[in-house]
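Entry type: protein chain
Record version: 2
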Amino acid sequence: MADSRIITIDGLVKKFPMGGGWFTALSDISLEFGTGEFAGFVGPSGSGKTTVLNIIGSLDSPSEGEVIVMDKSIGELSHGEAAKLRNRHLGFIFQTYNLLPVYTVYENVEFPLLLLNMSPRARKKAVLEALEWVGLTDKIKSRPAQLSGGQCQRVAIARAMVKKPVLVLADEPTANLDADNSHHILETMETLNRELKTTFIFATHDHKVIRYLKRKISLEDGRVVKDEIVKAKRKVKE
């Protein structure tokens, strides 16, 4: 259960230019998230899930309203300030993994740490710990092309978690995985959420993910239609 607020969304509106007018992707969203939540935005494609996740992650900014993450107002951040917020406090997991193909597993996981002021010894310790979390210590010299889809996604989780971020944003993280790999990945995330108190927020329409969520925020046409605390049903596999 959350014990302190890290995200406040107040009257969020997001519009994109379309033709000669504007398309409203998000409309009047107001929410709060606390430390240690395992929550998700759910809904059909085009409902606004990824858009709101991108704004929380400072990859985009509000058209109207305010989004505050770690006491920073996203709409007021410069590009440099937004990058600093992401580098220090946020982790990202994408459905396409976004691994660097010429880098080894070790190098891919180490990459976020190169942006921080860490010694090589500290980086090595953090990378090996992250790879141990996801069960890939035997693959540190492998490259992405030598791994399965499930292993690539586990590398992506290790990369997102290596700096022990306060917040991890996961956009359809199981979209390219079969049921067994999906459940393994989700169990790993759930363990990290429990042990490190990292807040996870998903954007998904995958029922395998939805069964793990402890809070489900349903979006339709860019609006919140339901915000509910749920009991996970993860033991049921497809």
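Comment: The chain has one domain: 5-229.
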